[in-house]
Amino acid sequence: MTTSTSDPSKDLIRAKALELGFDLCGFAAVDEPWLAGERLKTFVFEGLHGTMGWMEETLERRSHPTAMWTDARSAVVLGMNYGPDVDPLAALADRDRAAISVYAQGDDYHDVIKKRLKLLAGWIVERFGGEVKVFVDTAPLMEKPLAEKAGLGWQGKHTNLVSRGFGSWLFLGSVLTTLELETDTVAQAGCGSCSACLDICPTKAFPEPYRLDARRCISYLTIEHRGPIPAQFRPALGNRIYGCDDCLAVCPWNKFASQAREQKLHARETLRGPSLAELSALDDPSFRALFSKSPVKRIGRDRFVRNVLYAIGNSADPSLMAAVQPRLADASADVRGAAVWAAGRLLEPAAFAALAAGLAASEADPHVLDELAAATEPRQPHLA
Predict the structure, then answer these.
(1) In this model, does residue 356 exceed pLDDT 90?
(2) Burial class, 21, CB count within 10 angstroms (exposed 0-12 / middle 13-18 / buried 19+)
(3) Which end of the chain is more exposed for a tag (fewer CB within 10 A), N or C?
(4) Does the annotation mark 137 as catalytic?
(5) Start-to-end C-alpha separation, the chain
(6) Do the Cβ atoms of 105 and 271 come closer than 8 Å?
């Protein structure tokens, strides 16, 4: 790597990145030792990735940036602020309405970011030569440690990137290049003794600072986890039906994101606290229509409605039983099972026992039968 104290090409690239709508641009060497790869291997070997088998399958490719592309010498790492214009934690109080993670309330950020990355990459080649490849987080490149190395911020105790200028609200993207660009100064960590992000986690998914157990994380459970969500975590979901913003939203550094914020990614009004009852009635075509161009669409209608029914079960609103009733006969066993759980939470014990007896007589799926049996038992404390 060049040892010069100033690299004019970096200034030009950074200016172009800001022109294209990015808020941060940093530079890092990619042909140096990479401790993040070893940390990832430990994470996977200990099973903390849950059922995300793709992490194990792509482990070697994630082990080092050059494992993705052996000719790469530098990374241009970009950040885009997506800080919300309202407090996302306020949505948790509306128990008959859904809380959808901030990043998923607009168009899929992968598409938004990738278009700009390609424009920047093309400009770099045109201006400086070399070869380039672009990455967003759908590719097996560890962008958070790379962003830390490029000086965009540091990985906080919640394992997400924290920026002094934008808090925990940054989308990341990278351009790998064969050009040799001077590495930026690594940002100094600023978490100090703060543990707000760890303390607020509803499912206690952080066994220690800087370490996440994905199997307990609401984002993992509502998005990645297939089949029934373990019963011990369901009450802690509250009305969160896609992702969880708690550990991000409570970060004290977010105050700078709101001050510096320029609205680039717009939330859809239809996804700001939508009705749980209405969402529970979605069939596959209406689900696809509502979430067109949205990251939510990738989990599919059945998993989504499963989440909605858990939220209804947490609502403590017996009137929502009218929304649960049709789902007890849903074609999806996952949906039927979640509907059973919701009914068990909303109905009086005698009424549910009568309902369960009728359902059990015609139910063939073993998981749904287990739900029927479990829902008639005395409730146990969650998060055991």
Answers:
(1) yes
(2) middle
(3) C
(4) yes
(5) 51
(6) yes
- Which whole number is the average pLDDT over 213-228? 95
* Cα 299 to Cα 295: distance, rounded to the nearest angstrom: 8
Q: Can you tell me the distance from the alpha carbon of 264 to that of 189, in angstroms, rounded to the nearest whole number? A: 27
Q: What is the pLDDT of residues 79-117, one digit of tens each?
A: 999 988 889 999 999 999 999 999 999 888 888 899 999
Q: Are 35 and 154 in contact (CB under 8 A)?
A: no
For the cut 70, the answer to whether the pLDDT of residue 56 exceeds it is no
pLDDT tens for 167-208 read 999 999 999 999 999 999 888 888 999 999 999 999 999 999
SS3 28: strand
Alpha helices in 163-204 (DSSP H): 196-200
Whether the CB-CB separation of 243 and 103 falls below 8 Å is answered with yes
- As given in the structure block, the two tokens for residue 266 are 């717009």
In angstroms, the CA 62 to CA 68 distance is 7
Catalytic residue from among 137, 330, 334, 370: 137
The torsion region of residue 171 among left (phi > 0), alpha (psi -120 to 50) and beta comes to beta
| Domain boundaries of the chain, sorted by first residue | 8-83+106-177, 275-379
Sequence-separated (6 or more) residues with CB below 8 Å from residue 318: 346, 347
pTM as predicted: 0.89
Q: Which two tokens stand for residue 1?
A: 């790597």
HSE-up of residue 151 (Cα within 13 Å, Cβ side) = 13
Beta strands in the chain (DSSP E): 24-29, 74-81, 99-100, 132-135, 154-155, 161-162, 170-177, 240-242
Write out the H or E segment, with its range, that includes residue 129.
none
Residues 6+ apart with CB under 8 A from 282: 290, 301, 304, 305
* Higher pLDDT among residues 219 and 56, named by residue: 219
pLDDT at 259 over 90: no
User: Residues for the chain: how many in total?
Assistant: 384
Query: Is residue 2 pLDDT above 50, yes or no?
Result: no
